[in-house]
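Course exercise 7: structure representation. Students receive a sequence record and must write out the corresponding structure in token form. The form below is the worked example handed out in class, using Aldo/keto reductase (320 residues). Read each field label carefully; the graders check that inputs and outputs are placed in the correct fields and that the protein name is recorded exactly as given.

STUDENT ID: A-19
EXERCISE PROTEIN: Aldo/keto reductase
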Amino acid sequence: MAFDKIQFGQSDLQIIPLIFGGNVFGWTLDETQSFEILDDFIDKGFNAIDTSNNYSHWVKGNTGGESEAIIGNWLAQRGGRDKVVLMTKVGGRFGYDSSFDTKGAYIKEQVELSLRRLKTDYIDVYQTHYDDEVTPIEETLRAYEDLIHEGKVRYIGASNISPERLVESLNIAEEKNLAKYISLQPEYNLFDRAKFENLYQNIALEKQIAVIPYYSLASGFLSGKYQSEDDFAQSARGKGIQEKYWNERGKRIVQAQKELAAQYNVEPSAVALAWLLAQPSITAPIVSATKFEHIHAFVDALHIKLAKEDVQKLNEASKY
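STUDENT ANSWER:
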């Protein structure tokens, strides 16, 4: 399936504008299932995978690093490392009693562990998962600069970082000629719009940062499986999703999605992803799959181009 690649921010990386979220590996998918889903994703023409050094620490019996290890084993078996754009993260917690850490020495220690698990000698985009907000920004950036100089990392990005620290990081990188964040991974979807649009969108557009949102389907709320009260009782996560999203605004969004899904003859999830792709500030949504039909919806999301009035319809339904 031929898709057009796009340039990833201010880098020479070229990606198909939809990224696989590796949080499901070692959690809802075991290694065999992960290999099958990854094969299908790549065989359908996609080429970018995002994970983190601490996925999936929240699963009983896991310690973190399981997702990277599965991806590494898959890459070793399949080959073609140069055809995959591999993104991972550092600085997040391993277990809920640990803390965020973006100290230089910690980043340098963790990159070696990630490279070993991923069975590769370089990471395409190495991202600050959570800024600890106390480490001097220059210390963090110098560590990344060293890793780029050593060829272990090609580019860097940021995820959970305040707008102030993001701008300061970009300014310091410019002033001191250090590694610069080329991507931002915020929470953003049809429901969760306000934070990104009010605090980050202008920075991203002005600085030409690649924006790769996580929770693109709002933890599954926008997947199409929640259409009525009864649907929430069908899954373990249903109750939490219902409490967070099933209000008047949530119902309006689901209804608009449903109507457009019927119009375009696709799944509602494809509509939610197509809406993200229609936003001028968005480079590529990050989205996970546990079934082959989910990947089929990813394909549809790239093939349909929402008409202007349909984007407007979704904007209206989801206004806050």
